[in-house]
From TrEMBL, chains A, B:
One of its GO terms (biological process) is 'de novo' pyrimidine nucleobase biosynthetic process. Keywords: Decarboxylase, Lyase, Pyrimidine biosynthesis. InterPro entries: Aldolase_TIM (IPR013785), OMPdecase_AS (IPR018089), OMPdecase_type-2 (IPR011995), OMPdeCOase_dom (IPR001754), RibuloseP-bd_barrel (IPR011060). It catalyses: orotidine 5'-phosphate + H(+) = UMP + CO2. This is Orotidine 5'-phosphate decarboxylase. One of its GO terms (molecular function) is orotidine-5'-phosphate decarboxylase activity. CDD domains: OMP_decarboxylase_like. The active site is at residue 99. The lineage of its organism: Bacteria, Pseudomonadati, Pseudomonadota, Alphaproteobacteria, Caulobacterales. HAMAP family: OMPdecase_type2.
Amino acid sequence: MSAYADRLIEAVRRKDTPLCVGLDPFTDRIPALFGDAREDTSAVLKFGASIIEIAQQHAAVLKPQLGLFEQFGEMGYATARLLTEQARGAGMIVLLDAKRGDIGTTAEGYARATLGPKPGFDADCVTVNPYMGLDTLEPFLSVAERASKGVAVLVRTSNPGAGDVQDLQVGGAPVWRRVGEMLSGATQRLKGVSGWSGLMAVAGATYPEEARALREVMPDALFLVPGYGAQGASAADAVAGFVTKPKGLEGGVVSSSRAVLYPQAAQAAKNMSEWRAAIGDAMAAAAAELRAACAR
Amino acid sequence: MSAYADRLIEAVRRKDTPLCVGLDPFTDRIPALFGDAREDTSAVLKFGASIIEIAQQHAAVLKPQLGLFEQFGEMGYATARLLTEQARGAGMIVLLDAKRGDIGTTAEGYARATLGPKPGFDADCVTVNPYMGLDTLEPFLSVAERASKGVAVLVRTSNPGAGDVQDLQVGGAPVWRRVGEMLSGATQRLKGVSGWSGLMAVAGATYPEEARALREVMPDALFLVPGYGAQGASAADAVAGFVTKPKGLEGGVVSSSRAVLYPQAAQAAKNMSEWRAAIGDAMAAAAAELRAACAR
């Protein structure tokens, strides 16, 4: 199989948009059309399945947010796995947003659980936390190398408190920059023939200046950019860390969740066909907005 | 209900040992007596259930390592939840080692999943990663405050690469020390009448000097000390961050996994009664060794 980075960048080029649909099941926002998600995980499964059917037309990548599935216990966990299977079967690339990180054998367990085949998720890529050190990333990198998968490391996140630890100054540079520098060996290991690496960096859209600075440190890493849409960043901010290529900007994917899952028109839909149309419109708009931001 | 910190310290005093049994299911070490753990999660469930029956006699606290359950998919996840229920039913305090961490609503999802009632784990405490900032800990703290639970934050971990990020120097002090300082507000919020706080700090036994230094920064935090036993730290190292009280040292729990789950005598056991005796001996020895280390 091709390297994950090559598969990802090729799929993004084919869709001509870096849009990544974030799959965040909020119990109180999933429309009653699917059943009551507060009572029944089958409503979450039906909602997710319908989202994927529409998303596959507009985006190359799906990002299930595992924490929002885990709130439903093991049934939620199983639901996330089934939806991962559906999306991959439909040709989407699945980036599992699990933010795992642990030592030695436990990290191996998480790597198997997220990137490994059944009973694992068999996701294409997983988000991991670097706080515990490079040795804790190794089990993920090693599975990724063997199975043509990717690893997305939290470097500079998009939340208001992101700077508490990430911006601490170490010899004149913030911690997040040191983390980026530390990842250069791992980045080389997951490099594809496209020149891009499957060692992705999570770089929040709410901090475009920092995404640009991080790009200097990590020239080959594909970026996973959260925070576009509901978290307030513009499409231009979201692609700030991308690089100029003959066909425009490229260098990662940009995730949108709430704006494409729960747009007002979909929340007001009276039947499934109105709901489908509203979701399709929201995804098409996000895909187009990001396409335009890259075409310069 | 009493504050988590009070329940924990009282339970440790009653058992007269800070031993915390780490529940780490390794597929290739679970004895064939329980079935083949590589094929069937019911072997993991039976093994875990038997471990808890013995552990409740020797230790106040159980620490299931969620990553090693997740490698079995949703059935593993469910197994960890059932074992948590069993251990709490038997009066043990369950510290779920999940090392979660995410932003806003996703962190709320993880907080519900780990500390919340069914379909959550309803664990007494959960381990969390501080890299994403204080706002990402808030949902856990808020559930902990409401439900008399605890939150154990990774500060200085026990693995070889722990220093990659945690030891970066920020104005003359390492990142882990800054993280400890940042947690003082949270520590106050989870303080019990015992004077101890349910905001626990994960402080690796393999770095006793650092546990002592961290104690100065976090005088009221209970420590969760991993790395004792198989990871090479001595009992004296493990309690290095504890403080002197009239009855000896106290201030947290010390986790042992491999040494009490897979001692040689248990691996060689020919039947269940030999296995039970071997596990009981290993746990009694660990409990006694830590008791002795505290009695000074």
